[in-house]
Amino acid sequence: MASTAQGARKASRIQTKNRKRILEAALEVFSRHGYRGATLDQIADEAGLSKPNILYYFGGKEDIHVTLLNQLMESWLEPLEQLDARGDAMEEILAYVRRKVEMTREFPRESRLFANEILQGAPRMGPHLESGLKPLFDEKCAVIEGWAEAGKIGAVDARHLIFSIWATTQHYADFDAQVRVLMAGDSDVLDGAAAHLEWMFRKLLTP
Fold this sequence. Notes:
Layout: H1 2-37, H2 40-47, H3 51-57, H4 61-81, H5 89-106, H6 108-119, H7 126-149, H8 158-174, H9 176-182, H10 189-205
């Protein structure tokens, strides 16, 4: 009985390890080729597993892609959730900018995965945008507008401010190949980006 239970636990660990291995491989393939350009064969090759083994754990390419997107949304929303209405307005927004730059540093493939999904019209992420992102976006826009109305920051359209933060921070991941060519020789592009973006948004938001 003890050996059977031990075998079940071992199988569970193997399954967990293989799922993570497949998702890691899929993230690499999807971020490189996009959803349409990616294939199960490419994911299997990247994972070092057979295609039937991939299909043992997932229902197909779309199932893997949706799983990755679901995981991504949890981490993607966290920095915006941390924008605290009780904090100093300027510092809260600049901290958000810094967190987004760090996410570009730590999760460039996830950023490209998200960008590819949006460029295709968000066919698999649409419900998450409606149920997860939209309420949070509206809530934080109201916070920023309240700060602007109270004179704590300059007058700004909160929606376009957030869009600008996304565009300028995620650019360094989504257009990494171009950035590396144009910034060749720069020892740390993202350190320079963080300093520049903090200066730019501070200047924009100063009353």
